Structure formats: structure tokens, C-alpha cells
């Protein structure tokens, strides 16, 4: 099949590369010439494990090409995937649909024969129906230019696996022909018995925001429990583990700590709440504002904990911040809790030295006032306090004794519950984590 993928950011580049590896002829399209040049020369413009190797494979097969020409895309493709971003609007909580609208508006005049345009971007419910109308109006093919919705559930850091072997596929369609085209496009995925849900456009749009809202709710739920633990001396880590044994609850996305960030969950729950209000059903998802509130409080509370462990003031203190990316195995710093905390500590008068295995360059560009180091131990040299903000494996493997040898004070705040408190405490560290008692429960027992 001849496919085009419009927008070669995280989602689009991964989709284009994987579709070519799975045997389709693929044309990646973007308005950003430098991105297109990089991809065409075999470089993935962001950090994603496994993707560079697949890009090389796809380019070598001759089935993957890149262009900035929408005319070429219209000519080439039978199915066009829209993978452009839908960030939060600068002055409201609504999604900014500029790029989605532009992709359809610019592509449509080049659709001269029957073609399927498939939205993958995360959009407010009702967008697809509006875009379908725009397509019919602007495409020379008229009703032959059809719209479908196929939301994407890939996670950064696992993008290749999530694309090649997703949990499920969702096809929002308005005709049997559109469903057939999608089944053809995803044939190699469907051949692995991946379940597919065929539905209407609006349900397909909703599946995505409902899924991300549920995930955000789960994270904020356990972080709300952490607040209760903090007030009672209970241990949220043990609580989460005990809850996870119940299959109905499950342990995934129940990791307490600094909370969620990134380019998806925060803006998606806000856009969903905004859209629901527009539709007159804001009350139904009013709890999402609470979920957002709990999540924001985690950042402030982490700063408080650092201040507390420093004796009530961080002014003039040296803080080693381990992590900048919004999560491990990613160089994405969009709405990164780690950098938010680092900035707040700097604003409170601390000297903050940041280290991240992948996101240093982008962090340095976005936060030039922070200081940067090229290793965790280097960042910790002379530190009054170490704060773990992104749970990279590299940080879990640090020997408490090795870090003790370089810091000024053995104080650590584990913002991600990534370290073993007993190991750090026995090496002489004062270990603190949100929602965990200052002294381990067993030690408390022994003291009685
Ligand atoms: C999220 C969804 O998980 C994907 O299914 C979805 O496709 C994607 O958004 C999207 O809409 O494009 P992603 O943003 O890559 O994926 O990251 P997640 O793995 O969901 O993590 C989000 C944030 O939650 C991170 O900051 C992570 O540290 C935090 N998190 C996650 C927790 O604080 N606790 C947990 O238990 C899990």
C-alpha cells in the first residue's frame, strides 16, 4: 500500500518508519525541512530506543522516503495519516488545532482520486466530523476523500513495540471501504491477533482522551494517597504494593512520586475538561481538574521536602538534580516535573546542578539558568542535597557509598521512589520520599 504520514514528530516518524518496515511504501511529510533532511539521512531527531536501527532498515529497503511537498503526498498516497501535534493553547486549557487543520487544508486540494485521510493526533471529540466536512469541500475528489480516526496509544520509550504490537487498534470509520483500507494498512499488526475495535469517529476520538484521563487519574489517585500517608506516617510505597495484588486494581500506573508530565497526559486532561464544558457536560469530568491539582501539588511538595531536609531554607545551598526528562528513556522535557522542581529550587536561591542521561541538551536550551553536569557523580560533587527527579536505571545503580564520597551532606530526596531506602540509610544517608515515613516501618518497630 502507498501511505503518507503527515507530521514527522514523535508519533509520525515512528509510524512512518514502522509502516515501511512492515512492508508498505511510505512517504513522510513535514513542513520542517531540517527534520525531513535529518530523517532522510538516517538520523532520528529525538531519543527513542530501537528507532534509529529501524530507520536505517526502512531507508535501505527503499520503501521509505521523506518530502516537504504536499503535492507529492497527494499524488502518491492511497491512505494519508495525520500525525501532527495538538499542544495546549497558549492562553487557555483547550487544544490548539492549528496544525491538524493546516494539514487537512493543505493536503486536500491535492486529493484528486479516492483516498482515505486518517487522523491519529489526539483531538477534542467532534474534530473528526468537522475535518471530514473540510475534506469533502476542499478535495477535488469530493466525497471520494474520506476521513477516519485511528488514535495512537504509543508511549515514549516504548514507541517501536507499541506501534508494532499495540494492545489494541481502534478504527473510527463512516464506511466499509474505510474499514477495509485500515485493515489493509494494519494487516501485519492484525496478523498478530491484535484486537481491533471498529466504531464511529467520535467514539474513536474519545477512546484516546478517556484512556489518558484514566491513566492520569490512576497516578493522581496514588499520589493523593501519598498526601494522606504524609499526614499519618503511613507508607504509600507499601500501600501501592498491597493494592496492586488486587487484579481489579493492578499495579501499573500506580507508582507514587513526583507525578505525571510530558506532552500528553497534562494537556490531554485539560483539553478534555475544556471540551466537556463546551459540550455542556463539564460536570461529568470535573474531577479531572482535581487530578491536575493533585499532580501539580506533587511538584510543590517535592520542593518543600528538599527545603525541609535542608533545614528550612535552600538559599545558598547546592542541589544535585538527577533527571530532567519527563520520564526515563526519553529526551522529552515538555512539562517535565523534574525541570519544574529544579527551577523552583533555583528561584528559592539554590544553585541547582542538573544531570540527565539523554535530555541535557534540550534542558540547557530551555533552562539556561540552571547548571549542568555530564554525570550523576559530577552533579553531586559538593552537593548539600541530592534530588532524584527522573527514575533512569543509571540512577538506581548508583552505589550510595560512591555518592557519599563526593557530596557535602548525605541527604537525598527520592522524588520517584526509585531507590532502596534501607541501602541508602545504612550508608549514612538521610533518605526522604513523598508519602514515606522519615524512618522505615521496621526501624520504628525496633525502636518500640
Ligand atoms: C502517554 C500514554 O501512556 C500513552 O498511552 C499515550 O499514547 C501517550 O501518552 C500519548 O498520548 O501520546 P507518555 O506521555 O509517553 O504516554 O508517558 P507515560 O508512560 O504515560 O508517562 C507519563 C507520565 O506519568 C510520566 O511523567 C511518568 O513519570 C508518570 N508516571 C507514570 C507516574 O508518575 N507514575 C506512574 O505510575 C506512571
Describe the structure.
It is a single chain. The chain has 448 residues and is an alpha/beta fold. The chain folds into 2 domains: 2-198, NAD(P)-binding Rossmann-like Domain (Rossmann fold, 3-Layer(aba) Sandwich), CATH 3.40.50.720; 218-447, Rossmann fold (3-Layer(aba) Sandwich), CATH 3.40.50. The protein is built from 20 helices and 14 strands. The strands form 3 sheets. The chain has a 6-stranded parallel β-sheet with strand order 3-2-1-4-5-6, sandwiched between helices. The protein has a 6-stranded parallel β-sheet with strand order 11-10-9-12-13-14. It has a two-stranded parallel sheet with strand order 7-8. The longest helix has 32 residues, at 201-232. The termini are far apart. The mean pLDDT is 96. The structure holds uridine-5'-diphosphate-glucuronic acid.
According to CATH, what is the class of the largest domain? Alpha Beta
Counted up, domains total 2
Strand tally is: 14
Largest sheet, if any? Answer: 6 strands, parallel
Give the fraction of residues assigned to helices: 40-55%
Number of helices: 20
> Which range does the strand content fall in?
5-15%
What is the terminal-to-terminal distance? 71 Å
Radius of gyration: 24 Å
Strand order, sheet with most strands? 3-2-1-4-5-6
How does CATH name the architecture of the largest domain?
A: 3-Layer(aba) Sandwich
Bound molecules: uridine-5'-diphosphate-glucuronic acid
Task: Write the topology of this structure.
Layout: E1 2-6, H1 10-21, E2 25-29, H2 33-40, H3 51-61, E3 64-67, H4 70-76, E4 79-82, H5 98-107, E5 115-119, H6 127-138, E6 145-149, H7 159-164, E7 169-172, H8 176-185, H9 187-190, E8 196-199, H10 201-232, H11 236-244, H12 265-278, H13 287-309, E9 318-322, H14 337-347, E10 351-355, H15 360-366, E11 371-372, H16 376-380, E12 385-388, H17 393-396, H18 400-404, E13 411-414, H19 421-426, E14 430-432, H20 441-447
Helix pairs in contact: 1-3, 10-11, 10-12, 10-13, 13-14
Bound molecules: uridine-5'-diphosphate-glucuronic acid (UGA).
Uridine-5'-diphosphate-glucuronic acid is lined by residues 122, 152-156, 212, 215, 219, 253-255, 257, 259-262, 264-265, 326-327.
Amino acid at each position: 500500500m502507498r501511505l503518507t504520514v503527515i507530521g514527522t514528530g514523535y508519533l509520525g516518524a515512528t509510524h512512518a518508519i514502522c509502516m515501511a518496515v512492515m512492508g508498505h511504501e511510505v512517504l513522510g511529510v513535514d513542513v520542517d525541512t531540517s527534520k525531513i533532511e535529518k530523517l532522510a539521512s538516517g538520523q532520528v531527531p529525538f531519543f527513542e530506543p530501537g528507532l534509529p536501527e529501524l530507520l536505517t532498515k526502512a531507508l535501505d529497503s527503499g520503501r521509505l522516503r521523506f518530502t516537504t511537498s504536499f503535492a507529492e503526498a497527494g499524488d502518491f498516497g492511497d491512505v494519508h495519516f495525520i500525525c501532527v501535534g495538538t499542544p495546549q493553547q497558549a492562553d487557555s486549557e483547550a487544544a490548539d488545532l492549528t496544525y491538524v487543520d493546516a494539514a487537512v487544508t493543505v493536503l486536500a486540494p491535492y486529493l484528486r482520486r479516492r483516498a482515505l485521510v486518517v487522523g491519529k493526533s489526539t483531538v477534542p471529540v467532534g474534530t473528526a466530523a468537522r475535518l471530514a466536512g473540510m475534506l469533502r469541500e476542499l478535495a477535488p475528489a469530493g466525497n471520494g476523500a474520506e476521513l477516519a480516526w485511528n488514535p495512537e496509544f504509543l508511549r515514549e520509550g516504548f514507541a517501536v513495540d507499541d506501534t508494532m504490537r499495540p494492545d489494541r487498534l481502534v478504527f473510527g470509520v463512516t464506511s466499509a471501504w474505510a474499514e477495509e483500507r485500515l485493515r489493509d494498512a494494519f494487516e501485519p499488526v492484525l496478523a498478530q491477533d491484535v484486537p481491533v475495535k471498529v466504531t464511529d469517529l467520535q467514539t474513536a476520538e474519545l477512546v484516546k482522551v478517556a484512556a489518558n484521563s484514566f491513566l492520569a487519574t490512576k497516578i493522581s489517585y496514588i499520589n493523593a494517597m501519598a498526601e494522606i500517608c504524609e499526614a499519618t506516617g503511613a507508607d504509600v510505597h507499601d500501600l501501592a504494593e498491597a493494592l496492586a495484588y488486587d487484579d481489579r486494581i493492578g499495579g501499573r500506573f500506580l507508582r507514587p512520586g513526583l507525578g505525571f508530565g510530558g506532552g500528553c497526559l497534562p494537556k490531554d486532561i485539560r483539553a478534555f475538561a475544556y471540551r466537556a464544558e463546551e459540550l455542556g457536560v463539564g460536570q461529568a469530568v470535573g474531577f479531572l481538574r482535581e487530578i491536575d491539582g493533585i499532580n501539580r501539588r506533587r511538584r510543590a511538595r517535592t520542593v518543600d521536602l528538599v527545603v525541609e531536609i535542608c533545614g528550612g531554607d535552600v538559599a545558598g545551598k547546592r542541589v544535585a538534580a538527577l533527571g530532567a526528562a519527563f520520564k526515563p528513556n526519553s529526551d522529552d522535557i515538555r512539562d517535565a516535573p523534574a525541570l519544574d522542581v529544579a527551577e523552583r529550587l533555583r528561584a528559592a536561591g539554590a544553585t541547582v546542578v542538573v544531570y540527565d542521561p539523554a535530555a541535557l541538551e534540550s534542558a540547557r536550551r530551555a533552562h539556561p539558568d540552571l547548571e549542568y553536569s555530564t554525570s550523576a557523580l559530577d552533579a553531586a560533587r559538593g552537593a548539600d542535597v541530592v534530588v532524584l527527579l527522573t527514575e533512569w536505571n543509571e540512577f538506581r545503580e548508583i552505589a550510595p557509598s560512591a555518592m557519599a564520597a563526593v557530596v557535602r551532606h548525605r541527604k537525598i530526596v527520592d522524588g520517584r521512589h526509585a531507590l532502596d531506602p534501607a541501602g541508602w540509610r545504612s550508608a549514612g544517608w538521610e533518605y526522604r520520599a513523598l508519602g514515606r515515613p522519615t524512618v522505615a516501618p521496621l526501624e520504628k518497630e525496633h525502636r518500640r
